[in-house]
Design brief:
The protein is mainly α. It has helices spanning 25-34, 49-60, 75-90, 95-104, 134-150, 168-183, 196-226, 230-233, 242-260, 287-293, 303-324, 335-346, 349-359, 367-372, 379-387, 391-404, 406-415, 419-422; strands at residues 105-110, 117-121, 127-132, 155-158, 192-194. Strands 1-3-2 form a three-stranded mixed sheet. It is globular and about 65 Å long.
């Protein structure tokens, strides 16, 4: 599969036959989750990484509970992260949607090398949101390798050689190895531990990226199922096929949820200053935005800086995805196009133009100059944000879609002028 959300299967035939009694959402989600090849899950820490991490944190004055080590990255920890993000993101949706999810939806994080993020429908009123840990593992490894490729001195431990012997070329080779392994369904690879400053930056950006991964699937649940694809169907034909429009729509709703989720919800490190150490040998298209933009004391973030962190994180999310799946597929647009669309939708066309210029080698990332021109979200961006905040309109839309089908929504959109500005 070429992307973390490459399948959204529906119907009673998916994942096995249904019994006479409709499955509960938990039963349905468990059945779908059992269908994935899990691969070996090894949280025994044979290389002593836990002890190294505990010692490192103690040395910096931020003790880490050794018994809670698995929560920071092992397979079981990632499963719990999926469930935490889902529950947390739902708090930023209308109560009508929360009630629907409580009655009809179950989420499962699945420890599997199969790359999957999807919403499955039973055909009998139950839905399963499935996110496997493969892409989360890939994100985690790639973020560390990208920092290390720019400046190997930030690495405190490498499981293959002394950290002091690492060079940009060696780290680049490790990065290519991880990408190739990921393409073949195995996201494992070399293990690095970064210094505390870089570990803090990785933690915050990963938190945003992993939350967006789950939020994207909530976007599919809302758009493809509850609203019967009406939002995606309103997109211009230039967005491509119906499948591509569905992905763009899930991106937009997912990013709107990510924006509503405050950065204070992320796992910010207590105090360290995140300093930039850029070099001329940056990874094309990626590391410059990371190191140029993450340069602040967490307790003194400005609104512009918070948005810069979100922008850098979401752009890098798609650029990491691009390493494994560079081109558009029948089911998914090209990752770079998805990133540019989110920038244009929620920040303005000038943000997208700047991103494309950087990608073309015509500029370096300078988000401050774009913010100086103002934030100018599109009408669709404003609609996505307002939809997630308008309790009354959302409840009416869900009720119309459930009772009368998508034609009722189409009629309302066509006949009600205030709809576009109020929802």
């Amino acid at each position: 599969m070429t992307a973390p959300d490459a399948s959204r299967a529906t119907g009673a035939s998916e994942g096995g036959a249904l019994s006479d009694a409709p499955e509960t959402p938990d039963q349905f989600a468990d059945r779908i989750a059992r269908g994935f090849w899990r691969g070996p899950l090894d949280d025994t820490d044979p290389m002593g990484v836990r002890d190294l991490l505990v010692e490192r944190q103690a040395r910096y004055g931020y003790p880490l509970d050794a018994d809670g080590f698995e929560q920071s990255g092992g397979g079981q920890g990632l499963i719990q992260l999926v469930e935490r993000f889902y529950g947390e993101l739902l708090t930023h949706t209308p109560t009508a949607f929360q009630r629907f999810c409580a009655a009809h939806v179950s989420v499962r994080g699945v420890p599997s090398f199969t790359i999957e993020g999807a919403v499955y429908a039973s055909g009998h009123g139950s839905y399963a949101v499935i996110v496997t840990t493969a892409f989360m593992t890939f994100l985690n490894k790639m973020k560390k390798l990208l920092f290390a490729e720019t400046d190997p001195s930030v690495v405190e431990y490498c499981n293959r050689m002394p950290a002091a012997d690492l060079t940009p070329d060696i780290v680049r080779g490790m990065r290519d190895e991880v990408v190739e392994a990921f393409r073949h369904g195995d996201p494992r690879g070399p293990l690095l531990l970064l210094d505390l400053d870089r570990a803090a930056a990785v933690t915050v950006m990963l938190d945003i990226q992993e939350a967006f991964l789950v939020a994207h699937e909530i976007g599919h649940l809302l758009s493809d199922y509850l609203l019967r694809s009406m939002l995606a169907n309103t997109l211009h034909e230039s967005f491509g096929s119906a499948d591509h429009r569905a992905e763009y729509c899930a991106d937009m709703i997912g990013f709107a949820l990510t924006l509503r989720r405050s950065l204070t919800d992320t796992l910010l490190a207590p105090d360290p200053i995140w300093k930039s150490r850029t070099t001329s040998d940056s990874a094309p298209g990626m590391t410059p935005q990371t190191t140029d933009n993450i340069n602040f004391v967490p307790k003194r973030q400005t609104p512009t800086h918070r948005e810069t962190v979100r922008i850098a994180s979401i752009c890098e999310f798609f650029e990491i995805l691009e390493l494994a799946s560079p081109a558009a597929s029948p089911s998914h647009p090209a990752p770079v196009d998805r990133a540019a669309n989110l920038l244009a939708t929620f920040y303005g066309e000038h943000f997208a133009a700047h991103y494309n210029a950087v990608r073309a080698g015509e500029a370096r990332y300078d988000w401050a100059s774009q913010f100086a021109k103002g934030v100018k979200p599109s009408g669709l961006g404003r609609t996505c944000m307002a939809l997630l905040a308008n309790e009354k309109a959302f409840e009416e839309l869900v009720e119309l879609a459930a009772i009368d089908g998508p034609d009722a929504l189409k009629t309302r959109i066509a006949s009600s002028a205030p709809y576009g500005s109020e929802v």
